[in-house]
Design a protein that fits this description.
This protein is an alpha+beta fold. It folds into two domains: 2-160, 2-Layer Sandwich (Ribosomal Protein S5, domain 2), CATH 3.30.230.10; 170-285, GHMP kinase, C-terminal domain (Alpha-Beta Plaits). Helix content is 34%, strand content 27%. The protein has helices spanning 70-82, 105-121, 126-136, 140-143, 181-186, 198-207, 211-215, 223-229, 231-242, 264-277, and strands spanning 2-19, 25-44, 52-57, 88-94, 149-152, 157-160, 170-174, 219-220, 247-250, 257-260, 282-285. The longest helix is centred in the middle third of the chain and has 17 residues, at 105-121. The radius of gyration is 19 Å and the shape is globular.
Length: 287
């Protein structure tokens, strides 16, 4: 059995534009990968079966049906593009990334599966693999090479940002409920668009390690309806700011919140205070 991990991400910046005729939205985002939390994946190709995908996961929020699970769909999409029969595949998922939490857990798992399949079968070029990834979801191509990046288009135009810091003093709050990405995009309105160029300004400030300036450009044009629907998230954001955060925002379609602090020491202090104040919330260090 092959064992590997799949990292998470946050969107330090997410600007959503008008819906296209194909149903996708144009976007501009700054992806920032996190080594923790990360999912653990086991992948096996049993010799006693001729085909079929089996998915095992103890998290009840993860579907076992390969047609509904993004990892299962990744296997099918890869084999279709590679023009090979679907082999017998067993996938074992150990989830620590919140499901439907805006941290890309399903997308990361799917990308990791695509990479391991291509290592085994060596049938697809990097460009074709990226096309397969995009067919599975806008975040999946980023996880083929999860380094700090800016993504545009529908997620296919990825611009690496190698000069960004390897770690940032981040805290995460992961409530125990999902938010559907479809719901978040359906409730997006054009007046929520963020100023043009803020993604570039954010990246520049981070490259210069100017965290207070970077905090001014953190934003998410999907967040307003999510905050309205879930007042707890607004309370968490206010608590982050009251305890020293430079900024706090929802990642992706939520509900996970992240907060950027001036340094690791202030983030650690806030961690202890907030974990005690909100015992029902899972708080995580992102550094």
């Amino acid at each position: 059995m092959i064992r590997f991990s799949a990292p998470s991400k946050i969107n330090l910046f997410l600007n959503v534009f008008a819906e296209r005729p194909d149903g996708y939205h144009e976007l501009d985002t700054v992806f920032y990968p996190l080594r923790s939390p990360a999912d653990r994946i086991g992948l096996d190709f049993p010799a006693d079966r001729t085909g079929g995908i089996l998915i095992r996961c103890e998290d009840p929020g993860v579907p076992a049906d390969p047609g509904k699970n993004l990892c299962g769909r990744a296997v099918t999409a890869y084999c279709r593009a590679a023009e090979i029969p679907v082999p017998a595949v067993d996938i074992f998922l150990e989830k620590t990334i919140p499901c439907a939490g805006g941290m890309g857990g399903g997308s990361s798992d799917a990308a990791a599966i695509l990479l391991r399949l291509n290592e085994r079968f060596r049938r697809l070029s990097p460009d074709t693999l990226a096309e397969v990834a995009l067919s599975l979801g806008a975040d999946v191509p980023f996880f083929l090479n999860p380094i700090p990046s800016r993504a545009q288009g529908t997620g296919e135009k990825i611009i690496p940002l190698p000069r960004l810091p390897e770690t940032l003093p981040l805290l995460l709050a992961a409530p125990d409920f999902p938010v559907s990405a479809r719901w978040a995009y359906e409730h997006w309105t054009p007046d929520a668009a963020l100023p043009d160029g803020n993604g570039e300004r954010l990246a520049k400030a981070l490259e210069e390690n100017d965290l207070p300036r970077a905090a001014r450009f953190v934003g998410n044009s999907l967040s307003a309806p999510i905050f309205r629907k879930f007042p707890l998230l607004r309370n968490l954001k206010d608590s982050f700011l009251e305890n020293g955060a430079l900024c706090s925002e929802i990642s992706g379609s939520g509900p996970t919140l992240f907060a950027l602090f001036p340094d690791a020491a202030s983030a650690d202090t806030a961690f202890g205070i907030l974990a005690a104040a909100f015992p029902q919330i899972r708080f995580l260090r992102g550094f």
